[in-house]
């Protein structure tokens, strides 16, 4: 046995294992050890992104629910979505019913603005009627470009009013009336934004692929059209086209990476996030869909959980483009540098300190525990690699855990095959499995010899068959190059006779 299984059921699990044993905690704590400036956090977003994050905070963090309610109402009143406005009050009432002692009643904080609801609904109905009449008119006249624009405008309208299914229907319908690659690209980008708002991660990749194909076609079309320009102007136009393409590609990379993250494909998510261009390439996505600081957090946590150290150094620390994202969240650089310098206790402290920031993120929240566990496991494996044996007490000091906590974590990694070692529970020592290098070398040499013998036997057999002039001839009437239906072994030369000379195969080769 490599591990002594702990059978004492009365022993309480350590605190860090309690956190990772099940799903994410239902309630997130905000205190001195886990600080969060809610107003500063939500100021990075606008519109629907702002309100959805505030609603998520209400559901997971009772301490911040009243403040999140006020901020969400103020942001919602600047839009035109009555359903989203109502959902704020519904979400707060649900949070209050789950924690009535911590959250004050809704009536003490805000009341529903029925006047705004009526006015907004009336304006939306008038706008909808106008757009539908325009679409009907253009459809009757069979003007493809006008029909496409009418579907696009209706999609934008339904998206702004919260009817995402109708918006998706009109966006995809406009594809039938696209006449250029640029039109297809615009349609795909609109659908991608909508899918990201819906957090429909599995379908994002499909439209990213279509958008990349349309982007290639549109770039070629722009390069091949237009009058010839002077050399200097042509170079400027080329640089402008490349910059525009880079901005679109940056947004597509972010969308693809978010799709991988949503499907728990952390390595691909990190690779794709780190391919993204400069922050300015986000354009109107910044705050409306995602914040630059979010990208820094997603990419770093996924990279620490899956990348090797040289890859982390080259793609994060030495990546100028990604450095601009890290500037939005300064603790990310400290986290990476601590990991690279083997300060694993500091790594775990940072992850714990900013766990509230991670849990209130609508995209990252379901993956925080998985990523934290992967980073912790990798840190333990890296720490033990240079040692043939080490006391658990010393490992516990390096990670800030008790001996029992570090022992349970190490046992889990041994059982998973991550660490090839054994635990001496009596002396509290972790010993690496000793490999007999001499025996391993002999075993490798013997296997190589056996493989060589097998190859030589086959070569000798082939050589003797050729010496005996044994060939396989096709049946009469069958053309050359066709597969023969049967094997006719014909002896020729010195072999004599038509039978198979079994004496040639006797003996060991």
Describe this structure in words.
Keywords: Cytoplasm, Nucleus, Signalosome. Its main location: cytoplasm. It holds the Pfam family RPN7. The structure is a single chain. With 509 residues, the chain is mainly α. Among the domains are: 47 residues, Arc Repressor Mutant, subunit A; 69 residues, no CATH class. Helices cover 63% and strands 3% of the residues. The strands form two sheets. Strands 1-3-2 form a three-stranded antiparallel beta sheet. A two-stranded antiparallel sheet has the order 4-5. The longest helix has 32 residues. The chain is flat. The two termini are 44 Å apart.
By DSSP, the count of extended strands is 5
Q: Based on helices, strands and strand pairing, what is the structural class?
A: mainly alpha
Major sheet: order of its strands? 1-3-2
Taking all residues together, what is the mean pLDDT?
Answer: 84
Radius of gyration: 33 Å
Which range does the strand content fall in? under 5%
Order of helix and strand elements from N to C terminus: HHHHHHHHHHHHHHHHHHHEHHEEHEE
Sheet bearing the most strands, described? 3 strands, antiparallel
Helices, by number, come to 22
Please estimate the helix content.
Answer: 55-70%
The best one-word shape is flat
- Unreliable sequence segments: 1-25, 483-509
End-to-end Cα distance, whole Å, is: 44 Å
Give a topology summary.
Elements (H helix, E strand, L loop, with lengths): L14 H7 L16 H5 L4 H14 L4 H12 L5 H17 L15 H28 L2 H17 L3 H10 L7 H18 L2 H24 L6 H32 L3 H10 L16 H15 L2 H9 L2 H7 L3 H11 L3 H10 L1 H5 L8 H17 L4 E3 H8 L3 H13 L5 E4 L4 E4 L4 H31 L3 E3 L14 E3 L19
Antiparallel strand pairs: 1-3, 2-3, 4-5
Helix pairs in contact: 3-4, 3-5, 4-5, 6-7, 7-8, 8-9, 9-10, 9-11, 10-11, 11-12, 12-13, 13-19, 14-16, 16-17, 20-21
